[in-house]
Amino acid sequence: MWQKTRFTEAVGIQHPIVQGPFGGGFSSTDLVAAVSNAGGLGSFGAHNLRRDEILRVTEEIRQKTDKPFAINLWVSVVDEGGEGLDEAGYRQAVEFFQPYYDELGMQAPGMPHDHVEHYEEQVEALIEAGPDVFSFVFGIPSADVLSRCRAAGIKTLGAATTVAEAKALEAAGVDIVLATGFEAGGHRPSFLKSAETSLVGTLPLVPQVRDAVSVPVVAAGGIADARGVAAALTLGADAVQLGTAFLACAESNTTDQHRDLIFGSAADDTVLSRAYTGRLARFLPNRFVANVEGAKAFLPFPVQAWFTTPLKKTALAQGKPELASFYAGQGAPLLEHRRAADVMAALVGGIDQIFTRTTTN
Ligand SMILES: Cc1cc2nc3c(=O)[nH]c(=O)nc-3n(C[C@H](O)[C@H](O)[C@H](O)COP(=O)(O)O)c2cc1C
User: Fold this and answer.
1) Which of 5, 118, 245, 322 has the most CB atoms around its CB within 10 Å?
2) pLDDT tens digit string along 177-228?
3) How far is the CA of 54 from the centre of ligand 1 (A)?
4) What is the second-level CATH architecture of the domain 6-78+116-252+332-360?
5) Which residues face 155 on adjacent strands?
6) What is the pLDDT of residues 82-140, one digit of tens each?
7) CA–CA dist 113, 49 (Å, integer)
């Protein structure tokens, strides 16, 4: 039976299907609960949340489901030079972004301040909140955090973009490794080498990670229908994580415009760029990304986001997709369903069919 894997056993869920977490306000407790109630593992991206918000979100999820769920954080919250800017650096950045602020009729933001998230405080809140799973990206939590999670019965699930990262996660004592290929929507969470030099596709990454570590492996990146899930399980994954497929659902916290773009021909193309946050991420191409790429106007994370976040919000409010960011993975054109329960039912039914065919042929 494909449903029973080391992952489903470890986490205590029915189907080896994880709804990928979304940072940046795209997660919703409704989506997490819908996926967990359908027998998968819902995840909430909490990397932009304060301590009290993490506690409140966890409480809200528990009111909507009594099934296991994950809360997700970013372990590394600032890149070298991303703490702030001097006056000259600030003036140079504003000069670059000013034409876009002018186009949108908005003021440039002031000097970056309070723009770095507080991971240490967030992880304390997470341990206090006690979700079933702590999933994380961009690094490895300290030995102390991992052992406190173990003591509290919180399973740890860490993202790897290369075999070396998978081995480092296992060596640190992380319970489950996410092998995420470059097809995935959102950020590339590489932490040993630059994201640009860690671009491995899901197809080669999953079996290599499976061979390299003995802990359960979750596959992510470009998986969008039952065929993708069946392929990942066949490659040795113990579960799959889908992001874009669930982001496109009505229950996620994105906009209808974003959902429609994901389901339309715009999602035939996606690009990897540092244009919006200063860290490499996959989204739909547009004029803003092309210009920032052309000028190589990248500031370290999260300073780049300081200048682009208000610009994105205003562009979205004014209906200007040429400047707003729309995250999506390469599997978007395969998507058909707009509700999480329908995604789950189509995956489970489809995988059943594929594996029945395989075993009866
Ligand atoms: C809008 C968006 C935000 C994301 N934010 C996070 C995040 O905060 N933490 C994380 O671990 N993964 C994040 N991801 C990655 C997803 O959880 C998931 O691993 C990825 O989308 C899987 O690839 P797919 O989109 O091809 O299905 C994000 C993805 C998207 C599309």
Assistant:
1) 245
2) 999 999 999 999 999 999 999 999 999 999 999 999 999 999 999 999 999 9
3) 18
4) Alpha-Beta Barrel (3.20)
5) 133
6) 999 999 999 999 999 999 999 999 999 999 999 999 999 999 999 999 999 999 999 99
7) 17
Q: Tokens 């590394």 belong to which residue?
A: 76
Any bridge partners for residue 122, and if so which? Answer: none
Pair 268, 248: CB distance under 8 Å: no
Q: What is the pLDDT of residue 228?
A: 98
Q: Which among 150, 175, 178, 169 is positioned nearest to 19, based on CA atoms? A: 178
- Picking from 159, 157, 143, 147, the residue whose alpha carbon sits closest to that of residue 192 is 159
pLDDT in tens, 333-351: 999 999 999 999 999 999 9
What pLDDT is stored for residue 292 in this prediction? 97
Give the rounded distance of the alpha carbon of 7 from its chain centre.
19
Q: Vertex 272, ends 107 and 293: CA angle to 5°?
A: 50
Question: What strand order describes the sheet that includes 281-283?
Answer: 186-187, 281-283, 271-273
Query: What gap in Å lies between CA 238 and CA 243, rounded to an integer?
Result: 17
Task: Give 51's pLDDT tier (boundaries 50, 70, 90).
Answer: very high
331 lines ligand 1 (CB under 6 A): yes
Candidates 187, 205, 255, 272: which one to mutate for ligand 1, based on the most atoms within 8 Å of Cβ? 187
Tell me, what amino acid is at 166?
A
Q: Whose CA is nearest to atom 17 of ligand 1?
A: 20
Q: Which two tokens stand for residue 171?
A: 């060596």
Residue 288 Cβ < 6 Å to ligand 1: no
Structure-block tokens of residue 88: 């000259």
Nearest CA to 351 out of 246, 205, 223, 216 is that of 223
Q: In one letter, which amino acid is 298?
A: F
CATH 3.20.20.70 residue window(s) in the chain: 6-78+116-252+332-360
Q: How much of the chain, in percent, has pLDDT values that exceed 70?
A: 99
d(CA 357, CA 352) in angstroms, rounded, equals 8
CB-CB contact of 215 with 170 (8 Å):
yes
DSSP secondary structure of 226-260: HHHHHHHHHTT-SEEEESHHHHTSTTSSS-HHHHH
